[in-house]
Amino acid sequence: MLAVPDMGLQGLYIGSSPERSPVPSPPGSPRTQESCGIAPLTPSQSPKPEARAPQHAPFSVVVAIDFGTTSSGYAFSFASDPEAIHMMRKWEGGDPGVAHQKTPTCLLLTPEGAFHSFGYTARDYYHDLDPEEARDWLYFEKFKMKIHSATDLTLKTQLEAVNGKKMPALEVFAHALRFFKEHALQELREQCPSLPEKDTVRWVLTVPAIWKQPAKQFMREAAYLAGLVSREDAEQLLIALEPEAASVYCRKLRLHQLLDLSSRAPGSGRLGERRSIDSSFRQAREQLRRSRHSRTFLVESGIGELWAEMQAGDRYVVADCGGGTVDLTVHQLEQPHGTLKELYKASGGPYGAVGVDLAFEQLLGRIFGEDFITTFKRQRPAAWVDLTIAFEARKRTAGPHRAGALNISLPFSFIDFYRKQRGHNVETALRRSSVNFVKWSSQGMLRMSCEAMNELFQPTVSGIIQHIEALLARPEVQGVKLLFLVGGFAESAVLQHAVQAALGARGLRVVVPHDVGLTILKGAVLFGQAPGVVRVRRSPLTYGVGVLNRFVAGRHPPEKLLVRDGRRWCTDVFERFVAAEQSVALGEEVRRSYCPARPGQRRVLINLYCCAAEDARFITDPGVRKCGALSLELEPSDGASPGRREIRAAMQFGDTEIKVTAVDVSTNRSVRAAIDFLSH
Q: How far apart are CA 603 and CA 33, in angstroms?
């Protein structure tokens, strides 16, 4: 069956045979720019995908940046000793009693928009500004979620600072990444003065697995702008999926580095003292040591003891509970090399720790009035940040069985501003409020019952549990033995208890790494050293292009009929490259060959379409949308017949990003090829 790209072009060249005639799309069909006509040389049926081993450039060190919603950090390891992970130096500033191996995702820019500081330094400096002066400074926090929630993300998307001023999101992210780049390179120079800077660092950026292709491309564009790598050396930057990174790290852990949440106080239904998973697996480990084959597997693959006890084909879930999202992935352990296979496409949603912060803000709105809270945030932005810091400190102490109430400090600016705006004090507001579980303490603080604090967690925690339960109900996930709870929010005793209480009855063992907040960061370093560890992934969506096929009466709708030069064509046919939930191996390629429509044509653009369904027939079907464009930049043809010039494109859907390469068959030269998901 002949397939012609449906691009609405006159004079589209598709060969000299009478069976292959120039065929334009009808009026109203999806179109590309008129300078970008192509004609396919391959039939509509996809050739069998070919697996190609990924090629990676040499490097001396891997630097991973875990760019989180609430906190961020970096770590690195040298190629000479890849599993010796070096955490970043302790950050300046911070909160008493909190480990500072990460820093808050807070960026401060001057009133002119120049970079001032990041992390604790930015937060503390902004907090200390005079209220009137603070109005002019641009302070951004928890801005990563804006990329996830943006429905029409482009390179021109704007972010709003806490004072209401806006700035291009790309510049905000680039400022942050540039800070990490300079911080990391300075530390590398101090530790290894002889280390050359050029082409020696492989950078890794973490993103949620549920992020779509535009968001991943956005992070890559921000990295280019920040100077992490150049476009010419794009392979020096890897995008790591956060739950995958956690999975890669967990497979290296020893038993004493894991906590088992399944231990419960008898008859109480309450979590007892958390015990090491080591005791639970001691008997299995002794059996393992008696097995020469298993012992060899443990040594040769370099995986941890827990994984050596698992058999080939064993399945487990990683629940990455971060500041902005919950990210779920299901992996199957493959022997003999300990590689990982994804069993179901990444899932999750916006159920991160910031949901608890939003619930607290809504609570304040019920007490003091939503209009007041909105006004206070805009006119006293630094004081609002101060209030959120105070709440964060108390949020960390919340637990399912805490007995005492929690006091939350209100900034003087809040108290004074409320009195001036409302004509009475905050104590009066609390007495008049219908919220009876928050009182005014004699120390001049909000006094919240532990039950009230736990209630703030419930919408977010319930969303996480519902997502996990829905995932476990999938037929592809049957047989799961373990659930790894990772991410910064997984440090919460409230979340740990709720997950164990909901899933323990299923016989699922819920396990938490000791350094749960650093699991993704350390795993991203290991992923950068060996990107091939995740051998098979599932495509989250169906991708393809629109083409013209021969019209078949009875099979094709009459409204799709196009007659041209006596030939009958069906328009808008969705030619599929890869289907949603299809297993795709790393390096596996989908190939298509095209030739330019006109002599001297220098650029080819092909619209890409995607949908969640596996069986879409037309690009006009409900749920099918244009999601990007494949671009091929052509060099002069050197006198060869332009009508027969063949460009062969190879697309890979099994990596963390969709990739494309192309070659001019007549010259065997590479053609610059790219897929753009951000330009609409």
A: 10
Strand partners of residue 438: 448
- Whether the pLDDT of residue 25 is over 80: the answer is no
Closest of 256, 271, 258, 173 to residue 504, by C-alpha: 271
Question: What whole-number distance in Å separates Cα of residue 310 and Cα of residue 480?
Answer: 11
Instruction: Name the pairing type of β-strands 480-486 and 315-321.
Output: parallel
The predicted pLDDT at position 634 comes to: 86
Task: Tell me which CATH homologous superfamily contains domain 541-674.
Answer: Substrate Binding Domain Of DNAk; Chain A, domain 1 (2.60.34.10)
Task: For residue 31, count other CB atoms closer than 10 A to its CB.
Answer: 16
- The amino acid occupying position 220 is R
Q: Where are the beta strands (DSSP E) in 398-506?
A: 406-409, 438-440, 445-448, 480-486
**Which H, E and C letters describe 459-472, residue by residue?**
HHHHHHHHHHHHHH
3-state helix, strand, coil split of the chain in percent (to 5) is 35, 30, 35
Q: What mean pLDDT is predicted for residues 338-345?
A: 91
Helix (H) or strand (E) holding 372, with range, is helix 370-379
Provide the β-strand partners of residue 342. Answer: 331
Q: Work out whether strand 509-513 and strand 480-486 pair parallel, antiparallel, or are unpaired.
A: parallel
Residue 145's pLDDT is what? 84
Q: Write down the residue that tokens 């490097």 correspond to.
A: 59
Provide the pLDDT confidence category of residue 505 given band limits of 50, 70 and 90. confident
What is the per-residue DSSP string for 588-612?
EEEEEEEEESSTT--EEEEEEEEES
Cβ partners under 8 Å of residue 680, min gap 6: 152, 154
3-state SS, residue 53? coil
For residue 225, the SS3 value is helix
pLDDT over threshold 50, residue 276: no
- Whether the bond between 642 and the residue before it is cis, its omega within 30 degrees of 0, is no
> Given this model, what pLDDT does residue 600 score?
77
Can you give the C-alpha Rg of the chain in angstroms?
A: 28
Q: What are the tens digits of pLDDT across the range 294-322?
A: 434 433 444 555 555 555 568 899 999 99
- Sequence length of the chain is 680
* 203 confidence band (pLDDT: 50, 70, 90): very high
Q: Residue 475 contacts by C-beta under 8 Å, 6 or more apart in sequence?
A: none
CATH class given for the domain over 61-242: alpha beta
The pLDDT assigned to 680 comes to 64
Q: Which two tokens stand for residue 360?
A: 């607290």
How large a percentage of the chain has pLDDT more than 70? 81
| 3-state DSSP assignment of residue 543 | strand
Closest by Cα among 492, 394, 403 to 450: 403
**Selection from 545, 644, 649, 538 nearest residue 596 by Cα:** 644
Q: Please state whether 416 falls in left (phi above 0), alpha (psi between -120 and 50) or beta.
A: alpha
**pLDDT over threshold 50, residue 400:** yes
In CATH terms, are 61-242 and 541-674 the same topology?
no
Residue 641 clears pLDDT 80, i.e. is over it: no
Domain range summary for the chain, segments of one domain joined by + = 61-242, 245-263+294-351+462-537, 354-455, 541-674
8 Å CB contact between 633 and 649: no
> Is domain 245-263+294-351+462-537 in CATH 3.30.420.40, yes or no?
yes
CB atoms within 10 A of CB 210: 23
Say which residue, 637 or 325, is predicted with more confidence.
Answer: 325
* Nearest alpha carbon to residue 528 among 228, 103, 312, 300: 228
Measure the CA–CA gap between 119 and 105, rounded to whole angstroms.
6
The end-to-end CA distance of the chain, in Å, is 31
Residue 423 CB burial class (10 angstroms; 0-12, 13-18, ≥19) = exposed
Q: Tell me the C-alpha distance between 213 and 610, whole Å.
A: 11
